[in-house]
Amino acid sequence: MEEKEKVFGYARVSTKEQNEDRQLIALKEKGVPKSHIFVDKQTGKNFERTQYQKLLKKLDEKSVLYIKSIDRLGRSYKDLCEQWRIITKEKKADVVVIDIPILDTRAEKNLLGTFISDLILALLSYVSENEYLLIRQRQAEGIAAAKRRGVKMGRPSKPLPENFPDIYQKYSSGEITATNAAKSLKMPVSSFRYKAEIYENKATKK
Questions:
Q1: What is the pLDDT of residues 39-74, one digit of tens each?
Q2: E-only strand ranges, 5-72
Q3: pTM assigned to the model
Q4: What whole-number distance in Å separates Cα of residue 84 and Cα of residue 91?
Q5: Is 197 in contact with 172 (CB distance < 8 Å)?
Q6: Residue 14 catalytic?
Q7: How many C-beta neighbours within 10 Å does residue 182 have?
Q8: What is the maximum alpha-carbon separation in the chain?
Q9: 76 by DSSP, 3-state: which?
Q10: Which of 14, 69, 128, 191 is catalytic?
């Protein structure tokens, strides 16, 4: 009896604050089981992502991988094409891009079908990366223009607690650890280390 195909899904958002629900709904509508959906909340600049790497290990010639759009897989033109090669050539799995029906490697298994699929992928990957770079460029230009107008970017920093200098002095002298210092100031250790570094730099400049 022929082994049943294994269906997987991959979703990605760039930050923890972004919502992946639209992607999850699209994947579930294609019949991807919830347990077979891998989600990363991480930038698409490279493929060193925990869930993506776990997904790769699951794929084989009986697998079908669904993604909602090509940029959810990745942003880099070169890296995206390389990962597509790994999935379809090395793992021998099929890929279905939901938003672009022509990018369905199950459709045509002959040489011409493969060529057309790879050609379209290359074109879309190139466009996706250039759109991303253009957005970043516009953002940078907008920030630079705002700064020239005197607009302060980001959230205003909170003033240091009144007892920060005393706690910092104890930490600096080795009397207490960073963990104890942070606990005394009721802030995360990472925040204390960051503020301590800024405080120290300001102190040395005086």
A1: 999 887 788 899 999 999 999 999 999 999 888 887
A2: 6-13, 37-41, 63-67
A3: 0.57
A4: 10
A5: no
A6: yes
A7: 21
A8: 79
A9: coil
A10: 14
